[in-house]
Amino acid sequence: MKDASGRPVIVVTGTGIVTALGEGKQDNWATLTAGKSGIHAITRFPTEGLRTTIGGTIDFVDVDPFNCASFTSEIATRAAREAVEQAGAGRAGDFPGPLFLAMPPIEMEWPMREKILKSQPRHESADYGDLIASARPFAGDDREDCLFGSVGEHLASTFGTKGSPISLTTACASGATAIQLAIEAIRRGETDAALTVAADGSMYPETMIRFSLLSALSTQNDEPEKASRPFSKNRDGFVMAEGAAALVIESYEHARARGASILGVIRGGGEKADSFHRTRSNPDGKAIVGAMTAALADAGCEPDEIDYINAHGTGTPENDKMEHFAVNAIFGERASRLPISSNKSMIGHTLTAAGAIEAVVSLLTMEHQRIPPTINYDIPDPAIDLDVVPNVARDATVTTVMSNSFGFGGQNASLIFAREPA
Fold first, then answer.
1. Bridge partners of 394?
2. Residue 99, pLDDT score
3. Distance CA 108, CA 50 (A)
4. Do residues 416 and 326 lie in contact, with contact meaning Cβ atoms separated by under 8 Å?
5. Is the same domain home to 28 and 50?
6. Annotation marks residue 68 as catalytic
7. Where does residue 231 fall: left (phi above 0), alpha (psi -120 to 50 degrees), or beta otherwise?
């Protein structure tokens, strides 16, 4: 089957998800539609002296979170396993396509730096780089876990994906970018199937301090479950969280030929960057509007066909304002009536994983014909006139969804999902 442009129709046959709300689609969907928050006080590491002491840490996974990529690798594997098992593509350990992985930049946290430094004889003249280089024979697996491609290599080995695994990071748009790369690979005829995974387990004191210095994090520590307030007048920043999601993406013909159940169609996607500032969007909104417009054009979809927008909706004053601007620019007078909600009000902001997590939630929304709410919407912002599905999930007819991901550095992506081929 081809779309209106003569390209292969792209479908999703398996999904997996891990967030602070739980592991697997069943637990996450039940909690999201119940309007429950997964944000809580951080207990994994000391928070004395931090301005923000709350987050969406995944505390039910027993992995050393300071071992660089090991935590990200574990939650990525869990999400991918759920997706691959549901899709039934290939055989165990023999997936019939490439891997596209979105993950955070890998850095050594202080516990690992101290471990490596303690393993070395003291050299007064040696700098940090010399010590890391000389530690290679001593650090072993710890050093390997700090290499950017290590998570991708682990996933490729575990699931038997084909070709070199592609690891990428485009800030908070990364999860959507990984899906976009899979779409393009299938359209070019390079593969009939792809495994896309996005994971982020980078909640450490250093990371939180960096975001705090940017005044990006909420400081509503007294009531963690109420801290993430997308689109509300009293929003004061995002709540950092961990998470992972995976999608098995195939051509319609490949999925049908093997008798796979189709969870939904990816009609298209669009990406635009503005390179205006390291953290802020250009006030003219051209890149955000451009990403959404490009997604509609790529999908061959008119704005009136969109039934629901899965918002980026971080809860920062800047982001929510710009997303509102873009929705108004594209949907005009319909903008105030079009349902738009933010899963981040319950999950928190999972950074590089967010786009893929919200893609899975978009597919679940169409499957169940129920829109998750934006919780903590108690004080509406009069400058943001949107139907944010406040506080309570809503039954609705949803056949086509736009899912937005806007990242630091002006990296913006938007995806269009549908229940059936156009």
1. 371
2. 98
3. 20
4. no
5. yes
6. no
7. left
Instruction: Report how many domains make up the chain.
Output: 2
Q: CATH number of the domain at 334, please.
A: 3.40.47.10
DSSP state of 416: E
Active-site residue, 312 included: yes
Residues 70 and 101 in one domain: yes
Global confidence as pTM: 0.91
d(CA 308, CA 329): 16
Q: Is the pLDDT of residue 414 over 70?
A: yes
pLDDT tens-digit map of 232-277:
999 999 999 999 999 999 999 999 999 999 999 999 999 988 876 6
Given 154, 254, 324, 349, which residue is catalytic? Answer: 349
Catalytic choice (146, 154, 254, 312): 312
Q: Which domain holds residue 140?
A: 112-144
C-alpha distances out from residue 230 to 33, 281, 379, 413, Å: 17, 17, 11, 19
For 392-407, the pLDDT digits (tens) are 999 999 999 999 999 8
Angle between the 317-331 and 286-299 helix axes, to the nearest 10 degrees?
50
Residue of 68, 146, 172, 301 marked catalytic = 172
Q: Clarify whether residues 101 and 83 are in a common domain.
A: yes
Encode pLDDT of 280-331 as tens digits: 667 777 889 999 999 999 999 999 999 999 999 999 998 999 999 999 999 9
3-state secondary structure of 364: helix
Known catalytic residue: 172? Answer: yes
Q: What is the pLDDT of residue 260?
A: 97
Cα dist from 316 to 224, 228, 320, whole Å: 16, 9, 6
In whole angstroms, give the CA distance from residue 364 to residue 307: 14
